Amino acid sequence: MSDPSKPLVIVVACALIDADQRVLIAQRPEGKAMAGLWEFPGGKVEPGETPEEAVVRELREELSIETKTACLAPLTFASHAYDDFHLLMPLFVCRRYWGTPVAVEHKALKWVRPGKLRDYPMPEADVPLIAHLTDLL
Question: Fewer Cβ neighbours under 10 Å: the N or C end of the chain?
Answer without folding.
Answer: N
